[in-house]
Amino acid sequence: EAILIPPDGRLESRQCVNGKISPCIFEYIYLARPDSMLNGISVYEFQLELGRRLAKRIKGRREDEDWEIDVVVPVPDGSRPSAIEIAQCLDLPYREGLVKNRYVGRTFIMPDQRTRELSVRRKLNAMRSVFNGKKVLLVDDSIVRGTTMSQIVQMCRAAGATKVYLASAAPPVKHPNVYGVDMPSREEFVAHNREEEGVCDLLGADGLIYQTVEDMLQAGRGMNPQIERFDASCFDGDYVSGDVDEVYLDALSGAGRGKGRKGATAPAR
Which positions fall inside the Phosphoribosyltransferase domain (predicted)? Predict the structure, then answer.
């Protein structure tokens, strides 16, 4: 779009190129409220569909690797729709085992690791009556840095859980987001340069399963076929603008959280 300011001061705008909408799919997974409608898609219904698709994968994992699950517990709040659907599809009880402190902000957007770690302990409390003696499937909307999840696993075990399995309604986050979400550094992501088993070990869980990228994209396209392409770059590294390269990503990482924030800055684009 071009904004024209002629000598008489009368503003004009003209669309120079017919663009195609490519919404960020991470917004539907993590950022948007469940009662939101974004680009004709109900966020709540989308998250339910993620749960249905993930339930099929969990069913296979239970058969192939003998996952014994007594109860499904969501990590509040964003994972509830997916967790409810997973419990229903697998015919398992659903319980609210983690109580959230409403006066602590989102750990994902806090500025440094130490602040995030301290906030997790203040943010959630595990109910012993739900976890004691149980094999638990914890469902989260996504696992980005692992800060929250590793401590939650410890909380569940301290509350008496005998097994803790993890299910992420989103695929593994492996790439920076360059379009507005503060996720600049690949080194921060728990799935960076790690396979699923390595992430599971690092988080201290007994098992881990992710959503697939294809199932996630199919869920979105199925709810609005007019959207030909979602931006899923933080999952697949495919940036919709087509102008993001390794040089830019390295500079962006240097300009991100921590010591590097005072150093290099990302080049103009």
Answer: 53-168
Measured in whole angstroms, the distance separating CA 158 from the mean position of its chain's CA atoms is: 25
Tokens at 12, concatenated: 């004009």
Q: Specify the CATH number for 2-257; select among 3.40.50.2020, 3.20.20.70, 2.60.40.1930, 2.40.33.20.
A: 3.40.50.2020
Identify the band that residue 30 occupies on the pLDDT scale cut at 50, 70 and 90: very high
Domain borders along the chain are 2-257
Does residue 107 contact residue 150 with C-beta atoms inside 8 Å? no
Q: What is the DSSP letter of 29?
A: I
Identity at 189, one-letter amino acid code: F
> Considering the chain, what percentage of its residues have pLDDT values greater than 70?
88
Give mean pLDDT, residues 250-254: 82
DSSP for residue 208? E
Closest CA to 194 of 223, 172, 166: 172
Tokens 């503003």 belong to 11
Please state, as a whole number, how many other Cβ atoms lie within 10 Å of the Cβ of residue 247: 10
What does the pLDDT look like over 210-247, one tens digit per residue? 999 999 999 999 999 999 999 999 999 999 998 999 89
Contact (CB, 8 A) for 166 and 199: no
Euclidean distance between CA atoms 60 and 198, whole angstroms: 20
pLDDT for 152 beyond 80: yes
Phi, psi angles (nearest 5°) of residue 227:
-85, 105
> How many CB atoms are located within 10 Å of the residue 153 CB?
22
pLDDT tens for 139-150 read 999 999 898 899
Asked whether the beta carbons of 160 and 128 are under 8 A apart, the reply is: yes
Residue at 176: amino acid letter: P
